[in-house]
Model the fold of this input.
Amino acid sequence: MSKSTRSVEFAAAWKKLLSSERLRPTRVKQRSEFDARTEFENDFDRVIFSSSFRRLRNKAQVFSLDSHDFVRTRLTHSIEVSTIGRSLGEGAAAGLLRLYPNLGLTPRDVGTIVATACLLHDIGNPPFGHSGEKAIGRWFLANIDNGFKLKLSDKKERGDLENFEGNAQGFRIATRLQWTGQDFGMNLTVAALSSLLKYPCASDEVVPDGPKPLSKFGYFKADSSHLPNGGC
Done:
């Protein structure tokens, strides 16, 4: 494959992943002439004003034993990460847009996409972080066939629960659980959802000791139909 052919394919992939399209048409009609937000900035605001994001205030961020009582919550942590992500995104956009100038994006767009993904990065984490994930997984491991007898025979569905993953739960919240009166949750752009899927594989595709993209999974089987562009 020639260098020019690869460049065209990479540009097409970036354009697909960084699309401003949504999983369903927006219900907002006749937006105010004073609303100057881009679709990506609208994503950012949807997350900020969601109840799922506000609930992060009740989850403590992991911290060392400090002499003061100023402890970050997941909420303040996510906001701080988002501001850093915006700066990094805008900085990285210069190189991306120089390589692929026809993406129809600005550095401001890329920075906002990254900032939104940063706001969402902890939204599906249970209390106590990774320890909470393991506790949920152990409960399902003990009760799928015994106790509550959930009787799940599907390998993928069992794997989703026995190896519960906060990142997959975050994708589920963004696409389904944050109820707005219709399906598709917050109904974010394809770009925001693509950025949120930092582990682009299912639970049965995980390679624990493999490369980072395959060391954890990013979506549950039940949510695979909500993947941007039909999959990763």
About this structure: The domain at 38-59+71-230 is CATH 1.10.3210.10 (Hypothetical protein af1432).
